[in-house]
Amino acid sequence: MAVTSYTGYLRDLKRIIDRIRDRPFEFDSADVQLTLCKNGFGYRCRDRIDEGHLFSEHHMGPLNINNWQPDHEQVGRAEIDEFFELPEIYAYSDLALLSEKNPLTVAHWDATIGIIEIEVRERHSTSRIQRMLFAGFSDRIHAEFFLAVERDLIVKGHQAGTHLYEWREKLPVEKTLAAMPASAIGRARQTRI
Asked: Residue 178 above 80 pLDDT?
């Protein structure tokens, strides 16, 4: 089975995130947690809607330390916006979290790794949630090399995993990323999105 490109899916996520940021009054609740790892550095952004008001936090720092600093200048926001525009995007499956090559514990020189968890409830509707781990590339050559090496860890078809999944209705007992076992997500738990 061929691997699935998630470039369009990521563009759709960006539109949803922008709508949450620009029109928080259209939502009963929303929680957008996004962390990028690029060239040994990390950027974390969290946007949350509570009672129609948007609250945002931004942090950044080297991946080898646990205490990232607040990003008051929102330098990371430009990096995050750039990630959404990369031309080659693929998604990891649950297998990647259990692998010796867990992308959250390995440095990548050619890819930007992004984990995006969104829980949203538009006015008068049910909550839905998605949690995906992406690898983004600025060119096809690096993407093809990545696919050759990581093919067994990449989504083929659609992501319906247990820990990483596309949009679905939120179940009452659904666990967030913070509640996942450290063995499953490695360093991501320490750098909580």
From this structure: no
